[in-house]
């Protein structure tokens, strides 16, 4: 989710299925149920939500896995003052 989120950022997530297009959400793709992902909700589709990452060139999202089940919506983000070098 770079440039929106970076390693070390902390999120507060509310478990809900009430989502609007543009929300940051935590979801799970049926094709990879062991992975939780943080993505941007684009639109509701049959079978869940279409989720995409903010880094289109380097993101595994609905373009690869299809619709996702939304687990919760990000309601707060904390950006550390000091970021670790990547």
Give the helix tally: 1
Overall form: globular
Spatial strand arrangement across the major sheet: 1-5-2-3-4
How far apart the termini lie comes to: 15 Å
Structural class: mainly beta
Task: Count all strands and give the number.
Answer: 5
CATH hierarchy, class: Mainly Beta
Low-confidence stretches: none
- Helix-strand topology string: EEEEHE
Number of domains: 1
The biggest sheet amounts to: 5 strands, antiparallel
What would a concise description of this structure say?
This protein has 86 residues and is mainly beta. The chain has one helix spanning 62-65, and strands spanning 10-15, 24-29, 32-45, 48-52, 68-78. It has a single domain (10-78), classed as Ribbon (Umud Fragment, subunit A).
Supply database-style keywords.
five-stranded antiparallel β-sheet; globular; single chain; about 90 residues; about 5% helix; mainly beta; Umud Fragment, subunit A; about 50% strand
Walk me through what this model shows.
- With 86 residues, the chain is mostly beta strands.
- It has one domain: Umud Fragment, subunit A.
- The chain is built from one helix and five strands.
- A hairpin with a 2-residue loop joins strand 3 and strand 4.
- The relative contact order is 0.33.
How do the strands and helices of this protein lay out in sequence?
Elements lengths: L9 E6 L8 E6 L2 E14 L2 E5 L9 H4 L2 E11 L8
Antiparallel strand pairs: 1-5, 2-3, 2-5, 3-4
